[in-house]
Write a structure and sequence with these properties.
Elements (H helix, E strand, L loop, with lengths): L1 H21 L5 H12 L4 H6 L9 H38 L18 H15 L3 E2 L5 E3 H4 L24 E3 L5 H10 L5 E10 L11 E11 L4 H16 L5 E8 L2 E10 L16 E10 L1 H6 L8 E7 L1 H9 L12 H10 L1
Parallel strand pairs: 1-4
Antiparallel strand pairs: 2-3, 4-5, 5-9, 6-7, 7-8, 8-9
Length: 351
């Protein structure tokens, strides 16, 4: 009987000690350490329960019930304290993360359309207004479409003007959007008129500097129909120049050479900076070149399936980067590709 009373006293002592140790705990880690100490396999309650082997068969159920009662009481106290601690921690977290809704909000910076995209969209709108359609073509092109069907055979010296990124002997990154002249005529033949512009990325092995980039944008234009003349080309380009640069703008055509047009012409506009009086930007000529153009070469028409004796057409190609630089006074083409927020923020006011 003395052993039973001793075990009962030990259990009461462990219970009181455990509850006193549990009461001041205020964090989850300390609670977990308490659980291991008083409810784990090496806890005092477990050690006391092992003394039951020395008891009689009648005493063991009684002592076993006391052990289970103490363990259940400690487990219940642990769960209750754990909930209290978690609630306190959650309240502290809410207090720390409270948002003062009376404070003024943070102003978000306004975005702006990139100047290059703005110019491309303006150009597209101008030509859509003149009845053109917008077409797209592959950036990985074949040598046949990029050169040969544009009257540039493999031994033609004009290939030296466009240092090319070749992927295989036949595949390359297109050096201009002009291959879409042929692709569009092949798709639409024998229907007329053909009136398309082709915006897209092109690639050349140029050294990047203030006026050159190895990857840039080009917009090709093509018109094919019966009776198309050089005067039609000039009229379309004059309308384009006045829409982009102002209603008083003028254009000038200078003889040039492109293998896929004959005759060919470089197209100038009056200097945007000085209005034609001469300045540093136009090198005192009063004119600035903006694009190349010409009448579609008969060989290109015939190769694409249009009878050159019946049909004629004109084509032109421009670089939107150059137009954006002229229009907005940007002096380095690399600025258009650096994603510099300082440049883009300026166009919140300009556009």
């Amino acid at each position: 009987m003395d052993d039973v009373l001793r075990i009962q006293s030990q259990l009461e002592g462990v219970k009181e000690e455990a509850l006193r140790a549990l009461e001041p705990l205020t964090d989850v880690r300390a609670l977990d350490e308490w659980r291991v100490q008083y409810l784990g396999k090496k806890s005092p309650v477990t050690q006391i329960s092992r003394q039951m082997g020395s008891l009689t068969a009648e005493q063991r159920p009684v002592v076993g019930g006391w052990v289970n009662d103490v363990r259940a009481a400690l487990q219940a106290a642990f769960e209750a304290r754990k909930q209290e601690v978690e609630a306190l921690l959650l309240q502290a977290r809410f207090a720390a993360e409270t948002i003062d809704i009376s404070l003024p909000g943070r102003r978000r910076k306004r975005g702006a359309v990139h100047p290059l995209m703005k110019v491309i969209e303006e150009i597209e709108d101008v030509f859509l207004g003149m009845g053109f359609q917008i077409a797209e073509g592959p950036e990985v092109e074949t040598d046949t479409y990029n050169f040969e069907m544009l009257n540039i055979p493999k031994d033609h010296p004009a290939r030296d003007m466009q240092d090319t990124f070749y992927l295989t002997e036949e595949l390359l990154l297109r050096t201009h959007t002009s291959p879409m002249q042929v692709r569009t005529m092949e798709r639409m033949r024998p229907n007329a008129p053909v009136k398309v512009i082709v915006p897209g990325r092109v690639y050349r092995r140029d050294e990047d500097d203030a006026t050159h980039s190895h990857a840039f944008t080009q917009i090709e234009g093509l018109v094919v129909d019966e009776g198309i003349r050089l005067s039609d080309l000039k009229g379309v380009l004059l309308e384009f120049a006045r829409a982009i640069f102002g209603p008083d703008q003028e254009v000038r055509l200078r003889p040039s050479f492109f293998p896929f047009t004959e005759p060919s012409a470089e197209v100038d506009v009056r200097c945007i900076n000085c209005g034609g009086s001469g300045c540093r930007i136009c090198k005192d000529t009063g004119w600035i070149e903006i694009l190349g153009s010409g009448m579609v070469h008969p060989r290109v028409l015939d190769g694409a399936g249009y009878d050159s004796k019946r049909f004629s057409g004109f084509a032109f190609g421009m670089g939107p980067e150059r137009i954006a630089m002229l229009k907005y006074g940007i002096d380095d083409i690399r600025l258009l590709y650096q994603n510099d927020l300082r440049l883009l923020c300026q166009f919140n006011r300009v556009m």
